[in-house]
Amino acid sequence: MKITDIRRHNLQLLQDADYGGVQARMASRLKRKPAQISQWFAGYRTIREDTARDLEQKAGKPPGWLDVNRSAEGSFLKASPVTSEAVAQDSGKARPWSASRASTRWPLTVIDPEDWGALSDDERMQLEAALLAALADVKRRRRERAELDSGAAGKHVAAA
Question: To pair with 116 at 20 to 30 A between CA atoms, which of 9, 83, 107, 155?
């Protein structure tokens, strides 16, 4: 896989995971024009080295994050038996729960590790992207709820 394809793939993962799959939101937070993002995804433009490092920095990712071939590396949950060490691997990024709960073998309650292990790397990547997008959406809703709650609490204090 070429570096341009790897960066494009990882940018899509970033968009799905951190920006709820919304291209305009990602463009805004990365200080880029939506048209430029679209051109990267369509393959009309490439993500240059300096641009990749700038995007990683603005997205809070470590340098080189966009350059890691996640499809060749496999997903963060590898074929069974699944261990906390295998789960902790995601391009060098440790899962917060894996370090604190070393006895954790499998984080999901309704998906059998053997079923997960039987999936191809592409299937796991697709499921992980969907899960990351869902988690990003949950985080966004929690933030919005907290903002609403703190605003409502401020109104009650002002009224008293």
Answer: 9
Q: Do the Cβ atoms of 87 and 99 come closer than 8 Å?
A: no
> Taking the complete model, does pTM exceed 0.70, yes or no?
no
Instruction: Write down how long the chain is.
Output: 160
14: Cβ contacts below 8 Å, ≥ 6 apart: 26, 59, 61, 66
Sign of CA dihedral 53, 56, 61, 64: negative
CA 58-43-11 angle, to 5 degrees, is 30
Residue 152 amino acid letter: A
Q: How far is CA 134 from CA 19, 40, 111, 130, 159, in A?
A: 10, 24, 16, 6, 37
For residue range 59-113, list pLDDT tens digits in order: 999 888 898 888 744 443 332 233 333 333 333 443 333 333 334 466 777 777 7
Contact 113, 106 (CB under 8 A): yes
**Cβ atoms < 10 Å from Cβ of 101:** 12
Exposed/middle/buried for residue 155 (C-beta within 10 Å: 0-12, 13-18, 19+) = exposed
